[in-house]
Amino acid sequence: MRNDTPKRWRLSWVTLVIALLAFFGMLIASYPTVASWLSQYAQSKVVENYQNQVDNTYPDAVTQLRQAHEYNDALSVGALLEADTNKPTGSGTSSDETLDYDQILRADANGLMARLKIPAIDVDLPVLHGTSDETLLRNAGHLRGTSLPVGGENTHAVITAHRGLADARLFTDLDKVQVGDRFVLEVFGEVLTYEVRETKIVEPSQTESLRMEPGEDLVTLVTCTPLGINTHRILVTGVRVTPTPIEDVENAGAAPEVPHFPWWAVWLPAGTLLIGAYVWYSGFPPGFWAERRQRRNNA
Length: 299
Prior knowledge:
It is a single chain. The protein is of the alpha+beta class and 299 residues long. The protein has 2 domains: 13-30 and 263-298, no CATH class; 46-250, Sortase, Chain: A (Beta Barrel). The protein is built from 7 helices and 12 strands. It has helices at residues 13-48, 50-55, 61-73, 133-136, 246-250, 264-282, 288-298; strands at residues 75-76, 79-80, 89-90, 93-94, 112-118, 123-129, 140-142, 155-160, 182-187, 190-202, 217-225, 232-240. The strands form 3 sheets. It has an 8-stranded mixed barrel. The longest helix is centred in the first third of the chain and has 36 residues, at 13-48.
């Protein structure tokens, strides 16, 4: 006599192993995307609050901008691109000992200095004082020993950030910036636009590109290459655009456009549901659904 009672649902260890491998594989593959998005989100909150920090800083913005120009006037600019390191070092010094680098253009206790926007590669980063490991973990850093990024003739500021971090985008796409692209610095209420005039890869010993040029107002963005090896440096040098484009002035202080919509928040749950559906479906014995349909037809 045929037993019409359906067999019970049962989870096999093979199904469990496959499901766990798929689930954890999905998490591992998603980690860089999720971590990078969360890092960008944290950075966006810092830059979004930047102008409010500047408005409430002491000394006030006008005073700190004046001090920054005085610092630059007294600065002997220089920079070193040391081999086998992941960041350059500054070699410039200020002849005016009353001007404390760490206290000029300081918007908060962390040393927030400026906001850097590179539209061509969707970068919108806070710029902090110095290039310590802690600073560069989540932000761009101003290279001490080079001009403060407030513009003016005979200045050359250097801003650096990491490239290729698993959990932060930062300058990962700096190699995609092209001559003619523009980037914008918002510094204590000032808006400075720079147009890229040169991009190149240099050896650490080639530091002449970071020197001040008479009459020029320059900013160079620096990061390491190749990824994970760091034997060379990418230099993206921009020259000041004057007058500042009106659209850049109007967009100053606006909420960051990055990060974009977190699609991972859609496909991670969707992937989890698919894996769950696979586990549920696989728990039924072969022929279960055909037998169930047959019983319904015979009812």
